[in-house]
Protein 1
Amino acid sequence: MDIAIVGAGQAGVSLATRLRNLKHDGTISLIGEEPVAPYQRPPLSKHYLLGDKSFDSLLLKPASFYDEQSIALLTGRQVTFIDRDNQRLEFSDGTTHGYDALALTTGSIARTLPAEVGGALEGVFTLRSAKDVDEISASLFATGERPDGKQGRVLIVGGGYLGLEAAASARKRGLQVTLIEMGTRILQRVAGAETSAFFRKLHHDHGVDLREGVGLDHLIGTDRVRGAKLSDGSELEVDVVIVAIGVGANAALAENAGLVVENGIVVDAQCRTSDTSIFAAGDCTSFPHGDSRIRLESVGNAIAQAEASAGTITGRDDPYVAKPWFWSDQYDAKLQIAGLNIGYDRVVTRNGTSSSPSFWYFRGDALLAVDAVNDGRAYMAGKKLIEMGRTADPDAIADPGHDLKLLLRP
Ligand SMILES: Cc1cc2nc3c(=O)[nH]c(=O)nc-3n(C[C@H](O)[C@H](O)[C@H](O)COP(=O)(O)OP(=O)(O)OC[C@H]3O[C@@H](n4cnc5c(N)ncnc54)[C@H](O)[C@@H]3O)c2cc1C
């Protein structure tokens, strides 16, 4: 059986690797449009943006891996159409590639600002690929200084994890940073007010001008961005803009091929799309979770779902059950998140006034998720409890003297 995987990112590599581990002995083609070998994205907004890490250190596998595993890695090749009737992929250069089974691991696409508000001006960047970061670094971002020796000014649009990580990296680079979030608080979509408050203070303490409830009206400049007018009427001078306003599933290829797409490529619990010979995994999918469907943008999901789809392709029938986890690094704060807080009605705080607090989300008596800052023990305890389907006594959690290990006792 010839298996083609479109999208040579985290999920694509995990899927190809797992297929070989499961003794698939047919061909595997791993196809990516980026001109480089597959790499990790999380360091892009952290150490790579800071200039602390080389591109080579981001590679998901050493160069020799693909040959050793007989995985044909095709980079710099964009798939433009899936001819389902003939089980054939079409590339932008007009060539084609047949398949018996196809896996789509096309990831996400960063939302951009429309050109009408200045999104096409020079100096305006998104942060999704290594190329994006190389371009940001080639701007004054790397030195923190403008050509006239003055401190560079960066505007970050969007107060989610990506925007906040970019803000932390920019401050470490010596830039003056303004971050605007049009929602009433940063991290509104993903975290409770307690977690937002912790990170708001952290960024204030590091000198970020953080403005919540303020959106972008438009960017100012003719060719290059030089300023921004905000929704509250204020104006800022700006040298670099990083747009971190979320991502959408990269599902156009699937949609054009007539696959069912609703907030991502719709897959069942076995990672099958609406075409029995096409599978999908990672950021580009929406999959069953309890009574509803979700789409996750995380490394943990990309790996686990890709491995599950390799199982399905090689004849297993195990359903994929997501065990969500995520992390974010900002300054010296390492946030680790276990579970999903969707539908929470109560947050219990542990060590709230320290630099290592954790925030525990409940719905009724059920423990849903934990946000733990600089506290690996709280993260691990929360993760284990959630994965075992157990809960914990909120009073015990709130008591910093209570040993979390006791919560895990049968
Ligand atoms: C800056 C940044 C920081 C992040 N930080 C974290 C973090 O701290 N923790 C965490 O858990 N997650 C983090 N994430 C999210 C995480 O990186 C993604 O969830 C993960 O990479 C998803 O893997 P994927 O394989 O689904 O998609 P991707 O890794 O995006 O790979 C998809 C690949 O498919 C290629 N492709 C798409 N269409 C085609 C086509 N038509 N033809 C050929 N190739 C195509 C794309 O170019 C891309 O290389 C971060 C993401 C970014 C961008």
Protein 2
Amino acid sequence: MWPETEVTTKLGIRYPIIQAGMAGGVTTPELVAAVSNAGGLGTLGAGYMSPEEMRKGIQEIRALTTKPFAVNLFIPQPVVENPKIIEEMNHHLDFYRQQLHLTKLSPEIPLFLDAFPRQIEVILSEEVPVFSFTFGALPQEILNKMKNAEITLIGTATTVEEGVYLEKSGVDLIVAQGWEAGGHRGTFLSPVAEANLGTMVLVPQLVNKVGIPVIGAGGIMDARGIAASLHLGAHGVQMGTAFLACKESGAHRTYKEALLYRKKGETTEITSVFSGRAARGVKNTFMAEMEDYPGQVPAYPIQHYLTADIRSSAARQEKIEYMSLWAGQGFSLCQERTARELMKGWVQETAQLFHT
Ligand SMILES: Cc1cc2nc3c(=O)[nH]c(=O)nc-3n(C[C@H](O)[C@H](O)[C@H](O)COP(=O)(O)O)c2cc1C
């Protein structure tokens, strides 16, 4: 077991296990390096980082590992600003700010100066070996630059059509993100509700349609999920939720506890009320109440900025009911171990599953 696959050879790693890029502080340099040092591919989730923060993070990873690692970004979305919709939402959110004793009731919405080109420059100048992305395809000019720099490219598909589109665009590998997956949906060619295939059906259908390696993602929490994905034809797996509660994860303590000690009846749902873009997380008060919001939720990233003070204050005050608790459907299988222990266990147990 564990022969080379197209994923291990293209990425220069020992085991085809990728730790998902998770923007928002989860993917500390310690986590990324631990996964890469254990023979997988660690990923820095840099979607919300400034170019300066990215560079620092990359340099910190390099101080902890000589192995390949990836950096992950969001493909920018056209920003649709409607002042009336923003104003109404901002006013509505004041209720939650009051619950959290926030004095500043109207946060400044930043001008949407696009950091993406500068983030890309960091990846190029730091000679990052692998670049993964979500929410779309790379503009051709950037893709060409990445190819010239011999950076391996991983795109994210939530439908067969998106996978075919990404292959045509020139990526090297495709993450097939099933409906079970935690965090934001990568969907970019259809309405999110229509891009709802589970990992078990998305992976084999995509494998049949594309000529490049497919990486299964969504609901893979341990060796059973890894083995199943490989049996479905995936050449590797990408796991996010499974790393959230591990020691090196930068997730807030309260968030980790919510994952590790699931309450009866607690479940995950897909919502856009935190960020303006569909994402899966543990259902809490904010999600439930905001479902009844009568107006329109501003699009990403505006809603993400509008709720920023609520989410960060809630975390500081350990008020789990107002935090965004991104997680996949498999979250109750989270373990509080080191990333090295998790990787070691999955590698051994997957090998055993293939031999029985
Ligand atoms: C907390 C969290 C944050 C995430 N952030 C990102 C991100 O920044 N970029 C990205 O491509 N995917 C992101 N994802 C999705 C993962 O890449 C992956 O598709 C997902 O974790 C797989 O499903 P699983 O969570 O069940 O393992 C995130 C997932 C989680 C749980």
Protein 3
Amino acid sequence: MAQTTTYVEVPSAPAAKPAAAARLESSRYTSRAFMTREWDQMWTCTWLLAGMECDLQAPGDFFVFSIGRESIIVTRTKEGGVSAVYNVCQHRGNRLLVKERGCHKAITCPYHGWSYDLEGRLRATPDADRFSQGIDRDALSLKPVKVELWAGLVWINMNPNAEPLGHFLGPIPQRLAPYCFERMTLVADQTVSLDANWKTVIDNFNEQYHVDFLHPQHASFVDCCNAANQLWPHGHRSVQVEGFVVNPRYPVPDEVPAPLRAAIAPLGMDPGEFAGRVPDLRKAVQRQKREVGASLGYDYSAFSDDQLTDVWQYDLFPNVIMTVQAEELWVMRPRPHPSDPDKCFFDKWTLRTASHMAATGSGIGLSVEAHASGVCARPEREVFTQEDVDAGKYSMNITIDQDVHLLRYMQAGMHSRGFRQAFLNDDESRVQHFHD
Ligand code: FES
Ligand SMILES: [Fe+2]
């Protein structure tokens, strides 16, 4: 009974194992100098998840992506492409858009009325004849940012010489292809502000060592003890956790535990049949999903058996966490605060397959809690604080609420004179790989 870690080597990509190991000193999480280095040498040079393609249905649809002090406008163009430009007017530097999402015919500055088309080309300048020096429309167009699409998600890169997104992600999109994320529907859009550095959040999602202690409920539906960690080039990580099983640290229960009863009920499976043989359940669920999936409106044909029962998490460098099941995807993204290394914004999007949305009750899957099914309209973004989660006013799923509660204390500890650097075990390999 042990976790495993393997490096995944990818032809024509840099070696998965970096040449040197990073030291996880507390200043990495608390110092402004480190935060500035991250901005100059990482955030502005790498691919970042900016938003969801479902917010760009028609020409003129836009969203604004905020990262650190930067703000980027992403728009569906007339020709059906996607443009990304810095959200700053070339007249005197005013921020053009303050609204998060919407649809516009042109990008017009509220200050003196300069107007740009959907691609950011300067079109109108009031009192143009009063610029006696002339107006160079090319030079005064909005400054572009690289943009690409994958999996129904919109990615941007502030480095004009960046490698294509496909090179950066390597074989990961192929691994995830059966899930067809682009066909899933957004059912919840949440942002919590945290008193923690963004990397404190990433670290938390990159090890299962804490699960027994912080998330005891997991013992009755997944096996985190035998998780299989994979470390990819470019700092990406993944982990496979077997689902529809119980924690092997504890005696096997005679009866199927409650969360698994709820998860197999929509499949028409009788928990009584598995009394005394709970470990047989995972394989039986795989068979049953194949057998009755189509009649319940689910298409499982492209999935491997493991993908039908297990939870995968893909952590894409630097700050994307994708928790993947056959019927549901969580995309989580801690974003750095503009100026304070002790704070971040933590976004979570919940997406579901169409059949899962139509299902009655909680549908098929391992999520402990379900959002209302049958939702059609794009949900408004819920914005709340760590205190709101602690008070039970908002929930991001019980497991994440437990993490959210703890993170501020982790960040507080980083400031102690009594702590210098982290001391990791073998099963925290994804944490180390991320920092390397
Ligand atoms: S700053 Fe935008 S028009 Fe003047
Ligand atoms: Fe956790």
Protein 4
Amino acid sequence: MSIEMVKEYYGRTLKGSDDLQTDACCDLDAIPPHIRTVLSEIHPDVTARYYGCGLVVPEKLEGAHVLDLGCGTGRDVFALAKLVGPTGSVTGVDMTAEQIGLAREHEQWHAARFGYDAPNTRFLDGYIEGLDALDIAPGSLDIIVSNCVINLSPDKEAVLKGAYRLLKPGGEIYFSDVYADRRLDARLRDDPVLLGECLAGALYWNDFLTLAKQAGFADPRLVTNRPLAIGDPAIAEKLGGASFHSATYRLFKIEGLEGSCEDYGQAVIYKGGVRHAEHRFTLDNHHVIEKGRVFPVCGNTFRMLKESRFAPHFEFIGDFGTHYGIFPGCGTNIPFMGGAADGETSGACC
Ligand SMILES: C[S@@+](CC[C@H](N)C(=O)[O-])C[C@H]1O[C@@H](n2cnc3c(N)ncnc32)[C@H](O)[C@@H]1O
């Protein structure tokens, strides 16, 4: 039932980003200049119906094969299509005909704008809980993104398990979504506005971490997060005392990652060469790795860098031969602890 409410909300109730009643689905992330340039190339009819809550643009996209879960009118699909280049591809999946229809209408326009002979994009009608039913081979994707969608799903476990199956080993899901500081009353999902505005379906952050681990993503990494302001007093009243964050996580598909960050005396050195990250490489909000510096890492971080597309850009020091105990401080970062972990604050809607 809630699926039909969400379709109605995004297909017919909302006519554009300005119709949103909270800032939950707005994007306040600081946008790096090269991404701002790419976004300026997206057709205005597409951006007018952008409902994301974060920036889903990881590093090193050239040639990557990407899937966007709940792509809407395709703002992120088209931006990523530019960034992966003509040898890469981006597929968007969405269940709402009005949303994905508008994306399809602009496919050729963006291919021409980016100077491609043919679109490197594809839009599939479908449900993110049923990714196996889509025309995508298991283990074929480098990256899955999603922007303010998974909170809307009635079966988040199926979404994460399906994403895990579609990723290549060493691939990642890099996604922004809304999280609550507590478990919400399930009856809130019956309110179409609270659900549609990405609030009522938000997971309690610790339940998300458990779910991600159960789906095979053993060590979720928080990249950015910011508190959300609920400006409308009537909506805030219905939500009781709960508070919300928009957070971007990256989850690597690497078998055998450990449940905690363990210290094997390892380190990495960033050699540079990742475009737009020549001087420092950001893995997550605990790992900003300066070029040329010996950077001690836990076993999980070592493997995330060594077994992913980032490996050519690092030197790897040490092995798993000797264990020195727990790696202090790593992998424990969560939203709601210390507020805006990366210096961002809530504020006016975008
Ligand atoms: C908040 S909007 C975000 C759209 C897009 N990611 C963006 O940033 O503009 C949520 C989108 O997810 C889609 N959606 C929600 N639940 C879905 C589901 N279970 N399966 C497929 N699409 C879904 C909706 O149709 C809508 O287009």
